[in-house]
């Protein structure tokens, strides 16, 4: 796999305050990369630097081999983005909005506009004014706009923000489709772990302007997922579970252990054989807050 | 570049601002036409409608008498001769000087709107040219295209020039067409006096000469266009600097109105002549009205305006290309 976006030592200082403290990461072709972090971690600022809206204080961004600072036009041509909300011209129709942006890039034929409209499924309403669109439709138009120039890298800032559950699901599938079938690198930011987990191949966890960790979703969750056991008598259950795996402690009358896929039924069997009445086995994903507290050692989201 | 300018023009047109402005101009022209008509009727009633010929002849004889009298300066004699020429033209061509045609109305309308009305209309269109993109968030989409920032701003500036020209032209056409229905469409060749200069308290008439109305109008329109462009450029700069269109309009409005007030009271504050807003009445230099501050000339005022405009343009581009967009 080739790297489409390479970021090295990215920093941004505003006044005396350093808000982005040396980020380095790469995006590979055909992967969905998640940016996970609480509000104010610097996700949006980083994304703005990636698309050239903010000039980094230092550091290096290259897109498909082009340096963003020195070869802006060539570099930005390979990026499609939505930064924060998909804000388009409300007094123009969806089609006119797309035409407007197509005119700013050389060699985008009319057919490409129809193509992206079809891709995001807006054919029926494309000639209505954007003012009359729902948020979901605006989001889709935003994506259509981002895909217009056949980008290699798609950057979406909080793409499911404000969407209803069906919309979120649809967006997720669409993003997976773009990465798997079209071979795009997609960078998605979010403050919701569940969302990132369902969409992304790799995740960078951000806090206070730093990347704490970059890993695959599997690895992160393998380490962090927990199982809550409710059983009686509790002490005996704890002893038996401790033989099988690490007991992390007790919480709300339940024993907390690591989660290991495929092992739960075996552990349960052991408990049952020992005559322990198991009333509840609940695998739980850690909340972002838990993950944070663990990774940062006590720092909370706010 | 043509594509970019087309985009900007599309946005201006679709916001319907230009039509609203054309409508405002049409309504005001109608209003003034009616007021002018009333005025003319009043004057005619006072002087007697059919007597204007005799009146004019009387005036000519008056002037001739004064020319013949001995104790008059050479300079004044020349001025009177020109006046005589003008009056004779009115008589020869059967023009009632107190009942002007559409070109005269147009000229008066341009002279009266150059300081406040025209700049206001320009401001309404230009104020949100950049600030609306910032407050609406569309600037992010605009700046993440493979187009350099200065090109985007330049396309907006060109669109501004085109819209301002459109406003000036619609002012011209609407005032001509609407007032013409009442006053008639003739009067292009009417001779007008120009070339006055004011030195201190004295009116210098050395260079006074006659100019036919269409030439006179052309000069005034050029000046009005120049003023509109400068005001447009200043508004454009504010629009780049501020996200809020209301703030842009507020500041511009304050500047323009203070200019109108200052013009009437700054004669002793000499350095006020370097403010752009007291220099807007360029047409006064043509018609010979005394400038607000002694020593101001057409060349001076135009230079002051040009410097303000160039500085504003420079700041706009500097800020727009360097700024971080949040």
From TrEMBL, chain A:
The keyword Transport is assigned to this record: yes
Classification via CDD domains: ABC_BcrA_bacitracin_resist (cd03268)
Residues of the ABC transporter domain: 5-233
Pfam families: ABC_tran
Keywords for the protein's UniProt record, in alphabetical order: ATP-binding, Nucleotide-binding, Transport
Keyword set includes Nucleotide-binding: yes
SMART domains, sorted: AAA
MF terms (GO), sorted A to Z: ATP binding; ATP hydrolysis activity
Domain of life: Bacteria
Matching SUPFAM superfamilies: P-loop containing nucleoside triphosphate hydrolases
UniProt xrefs under PROSITE patterns: ABC_TRANSPORTER_1, ABC_TRANSPORTER_2
Family label: Belongs to the ABC transporter superfamily.
Name by which UniProt lists this protein: ABC-2 type transport system ATP-binding protein
Species per Swiss-Prot/TrEMBL record: Anoxybacteroides tepidamans
From TrEMBL, chain B:
Listed GO CC annotations: plasma membrane
Keyword ATP-binding: no
Keyword Isomerase: no
Keywords: Membrane, Transmembrane, Transmembrane helix
Single GO term (MF): ABC-type transporter activity
Chain segments annotated as transmembrane: 18-37, 116-136, 157-178, 216-238, 245-266, 298-320
The protein's name in its UniProt record: ABC-2 type transport system permease protein
């Amino acid at each position: 796999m080739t790297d489409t976006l390479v970021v090295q030592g990215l920093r941004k200082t505003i006044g005396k305050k350093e808000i982005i403290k040396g980020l380095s990461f790469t995006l590979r072709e055909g992967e969905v990369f998640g940016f996970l972090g609480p509000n104010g971690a610097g996700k949006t600022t980083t994304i703005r630097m990636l698309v050239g809206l903010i000039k980094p204080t230092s550091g290096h961004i290259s897109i498909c081999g082009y340096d963003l600072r020195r070869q802006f036009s060539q570099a930005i041509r390979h990026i499609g983005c939505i930064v924060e909300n998909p804000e388009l011209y409300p007094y123009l129709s969806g089609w006119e909005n797309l035409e407007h942006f197509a005119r700013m890039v050389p060699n985008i034929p009319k057919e490409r506009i129809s193509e992206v409209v079809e891709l995001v499924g807006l054919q029926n309403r494309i000639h209505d004014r954007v003012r009359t669109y729902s948020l979901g439709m605006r989001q889709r138009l935003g994506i259509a706009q981002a895909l217009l120039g056949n980008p290699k890298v798609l950057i979406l800032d909080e793409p499911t923000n404000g969407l209803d559950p069906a919309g979120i699901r649809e967006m997720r599938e669409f993003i997976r489709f773009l990465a798997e079938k079209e071979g795009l690198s997609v960078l998605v930011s979010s403050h919701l772990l569940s969302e990132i987990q369902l969409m992304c191949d790799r995740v960078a966890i951000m806090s206070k302007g730093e990347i704490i960790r970059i890993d695959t979703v599997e690895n992160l969750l393998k380490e962090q997922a927990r199982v809550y056991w409710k059983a009686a008598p509790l002490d005996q259950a704890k002893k038996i579970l401790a033989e099988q795996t690490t007991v992390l402690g007790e919480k709300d009358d339940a024993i907390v252990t690591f989660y290991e896929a495929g092992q739960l039924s075996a552990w349960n069997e052991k408990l049952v054989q020992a005559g322990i009445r198991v009333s509840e086995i609940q695998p739980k994903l850690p909340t972002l807050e838990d993950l944070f507290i663990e990774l940062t050692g006590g720092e909370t989201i706010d | 570049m043509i594509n970019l300018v087309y985009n900007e023009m599309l946005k201006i047109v679709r916001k319907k601002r230009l039509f609203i402005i054309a409508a405002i101009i049409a309504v005001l022209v109608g209003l003034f036409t009616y007021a002018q008509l009333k005025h003319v009727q009043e004057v005619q009633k006072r002087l007697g409608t059919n007597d204007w010929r005799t009146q004019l002849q009387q005036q000519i004889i008056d002037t001739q008498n004064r020319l013949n009298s001995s104790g008059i300066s050479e300079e004044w004699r020349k001025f009177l001769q020109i006046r005589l020429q003008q009056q004779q033209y009115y008589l020869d061509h059967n023009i009632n000087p107190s009942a002007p045609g559409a070109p005269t109305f147009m000229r008066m309308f341009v002279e009266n709107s150059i300081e406040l009305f025209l700049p206001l209309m320009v401001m309404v269109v230009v104020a949100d040219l950049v600030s609306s993109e910032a407050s609406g968030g569309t600037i992010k989409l605009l700046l993440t295209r493979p187009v350099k920032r200065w090109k985007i701003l330049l396309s907006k500036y060109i669109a501004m020039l085109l819209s301002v020209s459109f406003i000036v032209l619609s002012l011209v056409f609407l005032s001509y067409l609407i007032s013409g229905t009442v006053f008639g469409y003739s009067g292009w060749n009417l001779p007008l006096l120009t070339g006055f200069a004011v030195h201190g308290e004295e009116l210098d008439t050395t260079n006074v000469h006659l100019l036919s109305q269409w030439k006179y109008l052309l000069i005034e329109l050029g000046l009005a266009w120049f003023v509109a462009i400068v005001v447009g450029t200043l508004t454009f700069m504010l629009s780049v600097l501020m996200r809020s269109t209301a703030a842009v309009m507020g500041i511009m409005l304050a500047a323009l109105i203070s200019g109108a007030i200052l013009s009437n009271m700054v004669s002793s504050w000499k350095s006020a002549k370097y403010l752009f807003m007291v220099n807007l009445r360029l047409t006064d230099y043509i018609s010979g009205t005394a400038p607000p501050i002694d020593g101001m000339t057409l060349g001076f005022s135009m230079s002051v305006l040009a410097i303000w405009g160039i500085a504003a343009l420079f700041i706009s581009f500097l800020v727009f290309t360097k700024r971080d967009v949040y």
